[in-house]
Amino acid sequence: MNTPQKTKQKTLLLSTSVLLVSWIVGYLFLNYQFTNSINKELEKISQSIQKLFKAKLTAQSMALSLKLDEIVSSDGLAKAVAQRDYQKLDAIITPYYKRLKRVNKEINILTFRSANGTTIYRAHKREFRGDKLNKKRTLIVDTNNMQRSFNGFEVDNLDMSYRITQAVFYKNRYVGSVELGISPKYFVQDLNLIFDIEIGLAIKKPISELIVENDKVSIDKDYTLVRGSQNLKNYFRDRESTPNFKVNMDIPLQNHLNQTLGYLVVGLDISGIVSQNRDFMYKLLFIGVFVAILLVIVLHKSFNMMLEHFKKQVFTDHLTGLKNRQALNTKLYSGEAYVLILSNIKEFRLLNEIYGIDVGNEVLIQVANEHERFAKANGFSSYRISADEYVLLREEKNIQVDVYSDILDRLHQKINALSIYVPLIEETLRVEIYSGVSFDHELSLEQAQMAIKKAKEKALPYLAYSQNVDSKKSSQHILGMKKIIRHALDNKNVIPFFQPITDRDGVIVKYEALVRIINYEHGRKNIIFPDDFLPVAIKSGLYIDVAREVLSQALDVFARRSEKISINLLPNDFFNYSLMDKLVELIATFDTPQKIVLEITEQEGVEDFDRLHRAIKEFRRQGVLIAIDDFGSGYANYAHILKIRPDYLKIDGSLIKNILEDHESQILVRSIIRFAKDLKTKTIAEFVENKEIYELLKEYGVDEFQGYYFGRPKDLINSYKEIEII
Questions:
Q1: 530 occurs within a structural domain
Q2: What is the mean pLDDT of residues 75-89?
Q3: Residue 531 lies in a domain
Q4: pLDDT digits (tens, 9 = 90+) for 610-619
């Protein structure tokens, strides 16, 4: 058992560990944030440089193009190019070139070429054909080929320049071109004045040029740094030795064909930023550690008090002050044997709805107080585990079940005697409870819930758990049946069996399709009847699939037979579009739709009778006959029958089975027959089991008959192995 001193030591150790881990995590987090911040800042700078670079490139390119236009438009220049008059060219161009160089020292090329691309004059060197300049350039040749202007970067001898070309025409005939070259430095010279950065140029190079001059640095197998500061060169020679120097190469330098020849290299020395950030980070961490130490001291002093507080919060219901579900679970899983009484308030939801949540809470508190008083008086612990659910729990070694009948009586008397005055509504309310009792440990609550559910169903004030109230078996049955239904649907084992319906002479005039499931278990074939699987199918959403399967098979068979076929449908089936679409599709396969009888099984509380009536009228327009099934079963609505005016009324089998002995059944059957005849509707009697019932019903005037006396349901689809169902 822990002593207070040991608890304090553990608390101190835990607090110190938390402090150390927090400091490490804080340091790593701040370091990550600062690094991320620096990277984002470099990215922003690079984006800004890229925008400014492109803007200056566009603006200066246009300005220089205008200068070339001015030169080309000079009097006599086009003629001099056409005639290759070098002296004339020199006389015209030299003044222009000198003015250009005075304005912009970075202009280093001004070359004239003939129509076939041969260089005829270089203003930047004052060289002309007489100096044997008859070599053709291989850089921007499109001007000579396409006779129009082009702009773009060009690489020559591991250097780069920006070229602007202009076509020269004399007497509307292309005679040559002029090319202006300018160093890339011109476009970036102002950028490092705006940003504290270093700028260089990286150009593409072939593999054979890996070994370059000392002032040029190989970046990788594809690019060479041809212009740049010493920091940029050091970075690409040994990146690990320059950890505080960041480089970005996202700005492409493209030729006139939009092909990337290189990149603008942007370098940023972040050593100052890193130093500032680290100083700030250390100060922040120091402050954090100082604050954390203070918190550890406070935590160490008040840990036990807070532990008790949180323990109370975790295990206490905040509204009533009783112990909660968490506290109950802790007890139940201790392995001891307990008696558990679960109670909830009758129709508490209505109290909330009528009087509001505040009044409901007052009721919960008053009932909780009474449970607490009863618990203390009788040796129980009391709990509130959900909205209106209370638990009384007592540990017992030798449980005597009979004793608890008296305890439950007294508990109910106490609760029922409560007069709960609610000032908000100035009324006194009375409540009643249901209770369920169980005698177990881990499963006590689950078993008590089963008992209380059964008590409600039987309108009993309380009930003890037993195997009879255990709903687990029912749940297992439902799950098992759902699995069987799905398997049957997947394997075409949902099939219709057909029971004959005869006229008054015993001649078969129609068949009723009755759904069955064929299930194979342990190699044996079992037939499952609707009463066993239809309720599960309806609740689990599988009913429509079952109904569609039966419709398809039954109507497919009887489209080729002479007898009528009767199909059972629930009223709400008419509201399911997919099922009705399938039915309409199948009706279309019948030459005589009057061979189809739709039997509507009576249900209590049809959702929308007018909608049902409209659907029935639509099917009748198609020629289909309508029957009302189970008429007289207790839910018959004569007003609805009068409105539908069906072709058949099927008298419920519960009236037919005992008609020979039951005088009331005889009266009801005769009444139904008279009612049907007045409507000019035929009657069908179900459950005709013997000749005596048959003869009596004929005497009453029944038109058609169905029952074991005439035949049991058969598998007509697999006729080679017809099976009669007993």
A1: no
A2: 88
A3: no
A4: 889 999 999 9
